[in-house]
Design a protein that fits this description.
Strand content: 5-15%
Helix content: 40-55%
């Protein structure tokens, strides 16, 4: 008697797709949706059903459906099931686990409710359908704040629908809970205010007025704080450009032997970047840096030192490339939020933003 033919790839003997097969197809579709993930080694960022990824006694054999370990943001787990309740339960159980690589805590997990129509489709066809825009249903689970056991689910009930591309681009945006972003922004704002104080204490009222005019502000305090945010954004961007192997000087190369920032070295680095691109970030920062250093190089160096500490806080928190420094920081800077945000809408700055692109 002849043996029955094997089931289609990704299906069990009953002809139904397994969740494991769906996860493999979903992992490949996720990699195809983001250029950086697609260009990396297959298992470098998107890890599908791998053991040994979770730290801690008793967790060595724990296998997450999909674990995203992108170096630009915190780890994210994606848990799938044909049963929505099971997907929710698994996603919630992933919160608080620590990864072996990097020792970072999973604070965000997605529950994917696999549509029933995928039960009778082969793995290859699932992957094709997902890449071509087939919809799936998912919900976001997060820790409320670092070290606390409260969790949130969005939406509160049911699932949102979207394509794998939607999910892939949602992951980095949602990778860090809002409470932790705000906590980090408060720490950064403290260094920004200290930096503004350094310049403020070492300059005269007229010199402060000149700095305020350079950034189109009417009051000295607003001018100083906005100047610090401009420099912070430039320092952060410089570090990230250098990390990408773009040939841009590192922040470390702009320090003296005592590891103090040298304004002239930073000016030279920012001028080099300006000659290539990124005028919207570096041109206003470069202009005011030259003027401030000319007024008082020592206080400018002290202020830049505080801002480099703020950059380190941001990078350590792995806020990702989707975080807008101004949007998160300005609300922490007292009554300057509207005036600071308005800086980028000044006609002269808008003109600069588009020059050379």
């Amino acid at each position: 008697m002849n043996s029955p033919p094997p089931p289609p790839n990704g299906q069990n003997r009953a002809g139904r797709t397994t969740e494991h097969s769906f996860n493999e197809a979903l992992g490949k579709a996720l990699r195809a949706s983001v250029v950086r993930w697609r260009e990396s080694c297959p298992d470098e960022i998107v890890h599908v059903e791998k053991t040994g990824m979770i730290a801690g006694t008793g967790n060595q054999g724990k296998r997450l459906d999909i674990l995203i370990l992108d170096p630009t943001f915190r780890p994210v787990s994606i848990e799938t099931s044909f049963d929505g309740n099971d997907a929710d339960k698994d996603a919630d159980n992933r919160l608080g686990l620590k990864t072996v690589l990097g020792g970072l805590t999973i604070e965000t997990a997605f529950a994917v409710h696999i549509p029933a129509r995928f039960k009778n489709i082969s793995r290859e066809n699932i992957q094709t359908d997902l890449i071509n825009g087939a919809e799936i249903a998912y919900a976001l689970h997060q820790c409320n704040a670092a070290g606390d056991n409260e969790r949130t689910r969005w939406p509160k009930s049911g699932f949102i629908t979207g394509t794998v591309a939607d999910l892939a681009h949602f992951v980095p945006v949602a990778a860090l809970p809002k409470a932790i972003i705000e906590q980090t922004a408060q720490q950064v704002a403290t260094h920004v205010e200290w930096a503004a104080d350094q310049v403020g204490m070492a300059t005269t009222q007229e010199q402060q007025a000149q700095i305020a005019r350079d950034v189109h502000q009417r009051t000295h305090l607003k001018g100083l704080k906005i100047t610090m945010v401009l420099w912070l954004n430039a320092l952060l961007t410089q570090r990230r450009l250098h990390a990408q192997g773009s040939g841009i000087p590192s922040l470390e190369s702009c320090l003296d032997s005592q590891e103090h920032p040298v304004p002239s070295k930073l000016s030279a680095a920012w001028k080099q970047i300006l000659e290539t691109n990124w005028r919207s970030i570096f041109e206003p920062a470069y202009d005011v840096l030259k003027n401030a250093a000319g007024i008082n190089a020592s206080s400018t160096s002290e202020a830049l030192g505080q801002l480099i500490k703020a950059v380190e806080i941001i990078e350590l928190a792995k806020l990702g490339t989707y975080i807008n420094v101004g949007a998160e920081l300005f609300p922490k800077l007292s009554d300057d939020r509207k005036q600071a945000a308005a800086y980028y809408t000044q006609s002269e700055v808008v003109r600069k933003n588009w020059t050379g692109f």
